[in-house]
User: Fold these one by one.
Assistant:
Number 1:
Amino acid sequence: MPPDLRPGLAGLPPEAVAAWFAERGHPSFRARQLNDALWAGGATSAASIRTLPTTVRAEIDATFSLDTVADTEIRLGDGNLTEKALHRLADGALIESVLMHYPARRTADGQQRERHTVCISSQAGCAVGCPFCATGELGFGRDLTTAEIVDQVRAAARRLRTHARRLTNVVFMGMGEPLLNLDRVLEAVSALSDPGRFGLGARHITVSTSGVVPGIRRLTALGPQFTLAVSLHAARDPLRDVLVPLNRRWPVAEVVAAARDHARVTGRRISYEVTLIDGVNDTEADGDALAGLLRGDLCHVNLIPMNPVAHTPWTASPMERIERIAARLRRDGLAVTIRRNRGQEVGAACGQLAAERAGEPAAPVVARRRELLVMRSAAALGGERLTEPPEAGLAAALAANRDRTPAVGPVVATVD
Ligand code: SAH
Ligand code: SF4
C-alpha cells in the first residue's frame, strides 16, 4: 500500500479547517460539525460522520487523515492496569504510548480519585542517547507531526471511553525529546488544552525534558500552565555527562538555573526525575549532591527505579537505597515521591517495543556498548569528565534547533 500522505486533521488549528471549508464554498457550520465529530465524538474516519453530506465526507477523506495512528497494536500488563500501544505511522516509523490506570485510593489527606494517564511520544527515536533508555539506543528517526502527537492521546481517550472512563492526565514521557520538537509539542498542547478541542486542563499535562536549556527558556517566556519535568539523574557533571549526553552541551547548573527561573516566573513547581541505577547514581554522595543542588527550590523530586532494558550493564537500585536517598532529600525539606515501575512485562520503558521490532544488534556491538558504559561510568564515579564531543546524531539535532528561539510563540491555552 502506498504511504498515506494526507495531513492529520487533529494537528490543524480550527481557523485552518474553517478556511478550508470556506474555500470550497461550504457553509461555516460544516466546519463546526467536523470539529465536534473529531473532538467530542472521537471520529477516526470522515465516512463515519453522519452529520455531513456524503460528498463533503469524500472531500475530507481525500484531503485529511482523521487518525494518524490507525495502525496500533496493544499489549496489556500489570493485571490490565497498563496498556502499551505500538503505533506504526504512515511512513513505517514505530512509536509508543502507554496508558496507565490508577484506581481510586485513600491517602493520608483524604481520597484520591481514579486517574488515567497516557504517556506519549514526541519523536520517533531520540538523538540525546541516554544509555539507560531503550529509545536512546535506537537513535533519532524523525520529529512527529502535531497530529501524530495528538492522535496518540485521542486513541487512548477512545479506549477509555469504551469503559465509560475519561482521560485525566497526559505526560510527554514517551519516545523523544519534546524540547527538540518544541513547535509541534506546543501546537499539540494547545489542541489538547483548548476547551473547543480536546479540552484537558493544561495543569493535567506534563512535558519532560532532558535539559534543553534554550527550550526551557522559551517555555518560560510563554508562561505555560502545564508542568515542566526535568530529567536530572545526577547532580554531578561527570556522571550526568554519561547518563544524559546533552549535559556536555548544557551542564547541570545551567539546567537547574533555567528550571529555577521557570518555577519563579510561572509559579509552578518543577518536577525533577531521577532514574536510579544500582551502584551508579544511588550512593550517599549522590543523595548529598542532589539535596545540595535543589535545597530551597520550588520543586518535587520523583525517584524512579531504572526499568530494565536490553544492552545495558545496569539494573535498578534496590528499594532500600532509593528510600535512603528519599530520606536524605526530605531531611533538606524537599518533596519526594518514589515512583513504582509500571508494566515491566510489557516493556513499559518507552522505546522497548520499538527496539524489539528494530531487531537485535550484532553481539560484538552490544558487548562494546556495555564495555564502554562500564568504563565511562567508572571514570565518572572517579570524578573524571568526558572529553569526547557529543555523538554526531546529537550534534546534528542541536544544530537543527539552534535558530528556533522566537520568544513569542503560540500562547498555550490555560484552562482549569
Ligand atoms: N526525553 C525526555 C522525555 C522522554 S523520557 C526526557 O528524557 O525527559 C521520560 C523519562 O523516562 C525520563 O525521565 C527518562 O529518564 C525516563 N527513562 C528512560 N528510560 C528509563 C528506564 N530504563 N528506566 C526508568 N526511567 C527511564
Ligand atoms: Fe531521549 Fe529522554 Fe530517552 Fe534520554 S531518556 S534518550 S532524552 S527519550
Note: The first strand starts at residue 71 and ends at 77.
Number 2:
Amino acid sequence: QVASLADRYEDSFDIGAAVEPYQLEGRQGKILKHHYNSLVAENAMKPISLQPEEGVWNWEGADKIVEFARENDMELRFHTLVWHSQVPEWFFVDIEGNLMVDEEDPNKQEANKQLLLERMKTHIKTVVERYKDDVTSWDVVNEAIDDGGGLRNSAWYQITGTDYIKVAFETARKYAGEDAKLYINDYNTEVPSKRDDLYNLVKDLLDDGVPIDGVGHQAHIQIGWPTIEDTKASFDLFSSLGLDNQVTELDVSLYGWPPDNAYESYDAIPEEDLQDQAERYNQIFELYEELGADISSVTFWGIADNHTWLDNRARQYSGGVGVDAPFVFDHEYRVKPAFWKIID
Ligand code: G3I
C-alpha cells in the first residue's frame, strides 16, 4: 500500500476528489478511501440533476455520494447551488411561458425577478435542509465573473442584476447555519484582470454584509500556465480580505490553449510530458503548503486519467480524437511521476 495523499497533507489541508456516483465502488472506491478525506459531486448536485423540473426532485445520485462520505468520515463540498450552466430552463420561464430575458415591460420584469429569486430560494432551502448535517463547504455561486471583464451576462444577471448573488448567500446562511462555510467559486482566478473583477465583486458584497466565507479557485491549469506568481497573488489577495481559499477543481492539462494537438492515446504520451507535469504538480503543492492556513482544502476534479472532462475538450479541438491525462493516477489507476512529487 503506497503512502496516502490525505495523510501527507493532513497538517495543511483536506485532499478531495470530484466523483460521479458510479465511481464510489471497486478500484476507485478503494482509492478514494485511501487517498482522500473530502468529496464533491462532479455533476450530481447541480440544479439540473437535483431539480430537473419545478418541484420534481432527484436525490438518488447525490444521496449516494453523501452516504459514502458519511461512512468513510470524509468532508463534503457541495457543488453548486447557483450556476448559469447545467440549470434547467424552467427557472427562467415566466408565468405566461415566455423566457424572462425577452420581457420588455418594466412591471413584468420586476415580477419576473421576484419569481426567479423565489424559485432560487426554494431550491437552496430544499437542498441545504437535506444536506446541511453532511456538507461543510458550499459553492453557493459558481462562475459569476465574465472572462472578458465585469460580471457574467447570464440569465441570472440579466433578470436580477447582482441580487441573485446576495440573496443566494443570505438564503444559504439562513438554512445552513453559522458554521457552514460559503464560497464563491470561479475559474481563471489567477488571471490578473479576472481576479480583480472577482475581488471588486466580493469586496462590495462583504461591505454590504453578504455572508461569504471564502473563494473557491477552480485551478483548471496547464503545465505552463498560469505563472506561480499570479497563482500566489490571487490567494494573497483574497486572504487580505480575511477570506478562506479552497482549490476546488484542480487538474493539470498536458496541453496549452487551445488543445488542438491532443495525443491520440495514452501510449502516445511522451514520458517527458509526464515529468514536466510532475514538476508542475510539485511547484503548485509547494505553494499550497507554503500558504498554509490560507488554504483549507485542495480538491482534484476527478480521480484518475480514465475519467476527465478534459477529454471532451481535447476531442472538441483536436478533430474528435485525443486524450488528456491531468491527474496523479493514470488511466489504469497506477501512480504517476506527479504522485511521487507531491508525496515527497
Ligand atoms: O448524463 C448525460 C448522458 O445521459 C448523455 O447521454 C450524455 C450525452 O452528451 O451527456 C451526459 O451529460 C454530460 C454530463 O457531463 C455527465 O457526464 C453532459 O453532456 C456534459 O456536458 C457534462 O459535462 C460536465 C460539465 O461540467 C458541464 O458544464 C462535466 O462532466 C463536468 O466535469 C464539468 O464541471 C465543470 C464544473 O461544474 C464547473 N467548473 C468547470 C468544470 C469543467 O467544465
Note: The pocket of G3I is lined by residues 42-43, 85-86, 142, 187, 218, 249, 309 (CB under 6 Å).
Number 3:
Amino acid sequence: MSRDYRLLVKNAKQVVLVCSRGEKYLTQHGMQDLSVIENGSVVIGRDGLIKAVGPAETIAAQFADASFDKVINATGMCVLPGLVDAHTHPVWAGDRVHEFAMKLAGASYMDVHRAGGGIHFTVEHTRAASSSELLASLRDRLVRMQRAGTTLVECKSGYGLELQTELKMLQVIEEARRTLPINISSTYCGAHAVPRGKTVAEATENILQVQLPRLREHMEAGTLKVNNIDVFCEQGVFDLGSTRSILKAGKDLGLNINFHGDELHPMNSAQLGAELGALAISHLEEVTDQGIRAMAKAQTAAVLLPTTAYILRLPQPRARDMLEAGVIVALGSDFNPNAYCCSMPIVMHLACVNMRMSMSEALAAATINAAYALGCSNTHGSLEVDKHGDLLVLSSPRWEHLIYQLGGHQELIGYVVVKGNVV
Ligand code: NIG
Ligand code: FE
C-alpha cells in the first residue's frame, strides 16, 4: 500500500462523520444521533478518497511512516462532511431584483408569473444569452456556494423551455462540471413552465417528441451527462397527467426522478412520485398526510426548501410531520432568481428556526440525505472510508456554529476540501 497521501487533517476537536455504518440515508432517529469523534483526524488519499477517519492517536500511530502532500492542524477546530445542496437553478440571465419589491408589496409568486414576470422573464433573457455569458455567471454562483461549504450541488436547466436553450443550459452545466472542483448532479427541467402561447398539451408533446429524444442522442453519444429529470407539477403549470408522462419518459432514459411538487396547491404530487419510484420531490409545502405516508413507504426523499417558503411567505413545509412519519428529509437552497441564496448554512438555520428541525437533523438533511436525493449517498454525504474526501474545517470548537451563526460563514469556514484538495 502506498505511503503517500494527499491530505491529513489532524487533531480536530470534533469530527462529525454524520453516519458511520454505510447508511444510504438517515430517518428521524438516526438524524438525531449523528456519529461524532471527539479529537479526531482524517486521511485522504491521492485518489481523492477517504482512507481513514478516527481518533487522533489511532491515526497518528497507523500513519506514523506516511507522508502527506498537505497537513492541516485542526486543533480547536471542527471537521464536517462537505454540504450537499439538493436543489438549485443556477444557470440564468436577467436580474429579477424588481420582483422582490413586488412581492414585498403583496404580489404572490403566481401573480408575478401571470404578469409575465417570474420564470418567463428569466426564460427570455436566458434564451438571448450566449453560452459563455451563462457559464461565467454559473461559475461565480458555484464559487459562492463552494465558499459557503457546498461541495456537491444539483443544477437544473429549465429557463429555455425549448430544445436549443435547454441543451445550451445542460452543456453549460457540463462545462462547469468538467472545469470546477465542486461536484455537480445535473437535471433536465424542460417542464419548468409552459412556454408563452402554448398549451400544456403542446408543451408536453414537445418535451416527449422533440426534447427528450435529442437528449437521448446526446447522452448515448457521450456529449452530455444528465442525472435527473424534473417537472414543475402545479396548477397552471404541468398537471398530474402531463407530469406523469414526462417523468416516466425520463425514467426510461435512465434519469432519476426528482421534481417540484405540492408547492402552492395540493396536487397529489407526493403520491405520484411514490408511485413512479421518484428518488426525491421538492417543496411539498402543501403535501397531504396521505402523500407523506406514500413518500415514507416508497423511500422518496423530501427536499425541503426553507428559502422559498420564507421569501414567498408560504406555509412552512411540515418537516416535523414528515420526520415523524419516517420520510427521508433533505434540504436545498433552491437558488434561483426568486430565492437568491447560495448558502446552505443559512438554509439549515432557516430549517431549524422556521421548520423546527434540530441542528443535527438539519446537518443530516444537508449532507447524507441530500446526497441520497441525488443518488450519490454511496460516495458522498458522510466522512466514511472510500467515500470522496469532501469536507469542511470550521474555526469554531463546536460544529453547531455552522448553523447557529446567521451569516459570517466565510470567516467561520477555514477550509473547503474537495477530493482532498483545498479549494
Ligand atoms: O423552485 N417553483 C418553481 N421553480 C422555482 C422558481 C423559479 C423561478 O421563479 O425562476 C422554485 O422556486
Ligand atoms: Fe426549484
Note: The chain has a mean pLDDT of 97.
